[in-house]
Amino acid sequence: MLEPRPFLYLRHGETDWNLEHRAQGQTDIPLNARGLAQARAARDLLAGSAVATICTSPLRRANETARIVNEALGCPLVVIDALKEASWGAREGEVKGEWFAEWQRGAVPEGAEPLDHFLARALGGVNAALAYPGPVLIVAHGAVYWAIERFGRIAREEAVPNGLPVYHDPPRPDRPWWTARPVE
Question: Hey, where are the domains in the chain?
Answer without folding.
Answer: 7-182
